[in-house]
Predict the structure.
Amino acid sequence: MELLELLKFAFLGLLQGFTEPIPISSSGHLVIAQELFGLDIKGLSFEILMNFASLLAVLLVYRKDLIRLTANGVQYIVSREESSKSDFMFIVYLVIATIPAAVLGLTFEDFIGDQLKGLKIVGATLIITGIALWLIRNLRGSKGESELNLRDAIIVGLAQAVALIPGISRSGATIVAAMGIGMKQETALRFSFLLFIPVSVGTMVFGISDLHFGDLLIPYIVAFLLSLMASYFSLKWFMNIMARGNLIYFAIYCFIAGALILII
């Protein structure tokens, strides 16, 4: 393994980790980077491993929420205590919102992987992501976790399913949908990233048999560690951005990046 090749994988790990939490599409940026570097990464091993790194970062950032939801969810099942019901229902809605992406992902996995990874597709879908972010840039919802319902879960779940297309940001699509139906920014952010967990776990479970590293074990490990660190700090940074309501900057970035890809 040459040093240059190792550096390319290190950069891909950083890129994926940094772009995964923010609404500019990590999958789209990986397609662009692989084209620029002339890398043809076979199979899904790299994507699965980078996905797992981002999953660990989300678990670290939201560990307190996960502990609270689990404890209250179990408490409600056991005792039907009313004070725990909203957390239990939040878990139920996360499960429901996972279904569309799971079904469509399994059904159209080959089509998405073979037909929707071109640069023109990524350029166009980045612009679509930018338009969606622009439309909700000034929204300030009022709906908290205890006010969510089945309709909300289905809408956000369908948005996540659309994000299976490279260039459509998963976090962007789910946050746009959540804020579009009136969720508070904090609630939209939490629902979006906790929703990432079951989808990511499913990707790992169904893709683990495809994990083959060969002579790329070292660059994959380097990329994994860098992706983990980048995902963690990027998510913390994005949480601050959301608190200040500055999504417009991501919309502008998506417009510029998408247009440059289509032109160049």
